[in-house]
Amino acid sequence: MSQPIELVLFDFDGVVVDSEIISLRMLVTELAQQGVTVDIPYVARHFLGRSYPTVIAQIREEFGITLPAGFEADYRARLIAAFEAEGLKVMPHLREVLGALAVPYCLATSSSPARVASSLAMTGLTAAFEGRITTASEVKRGKPAPDLPLRAAEKAGVPPERCLLIEDSLAGIGAGLAAGMAVWQFTGGSHLANGAVPQDPQTLPHRQFASFAELPHLAPDLFLTGT
Fold first, then answer.
1. Which of 84, 40, 79, 34 lies closest to 59 in space, CA to CA?
2. Class of domain 7-18+89-222
3. Sorted alphabetically, which Pfam families does this protein's record hold (predicted)?
């Protein structure tokens, strides 16, 4: 990191909460019921980190199918029910990291405000991120355009070159790089188990790490003394 970091931006799904494996399985199942046959690796590479409207537009373009009007609402409702049934979990050591950071932090997520609120409530993180949330609903272009992380940085009053973005998806990494931020890829989510990390030589993070327990050692200047 060439510039001192004044803000840490976290993606949400697949970084703060271990939700992406549930979301990927659900989307594969829901699309199959609409006649679209894809597998989890396909969904992970093409849809991970993107907003719902972007995903729907890509499905329409690639498969020539327009999903029914109620698809989004039904999918979101079933997904929240799946989070509750399977027990949505916070990433290990994430709470300790939030409590020990010496710089401000926030969320920059493609998820809808309602989904973020439900997931935070489920995992007991509402207070930790209150007033620190930016969603794709606040920008015109979703990831990999830089609009989302730039909007989050703007709200915090921090220039992008002094931001560290922690992402899991290629789309999110691309957004952070386009925004001019330091970008670290978190690879510890269940959806990236067994080395199933999407690769793109044109979209390379500045660093990868697999556990939040590593973060204080990788970036000690971001943490309170004695962490």
1. 34
2. alpha beta
3. Hydrolase
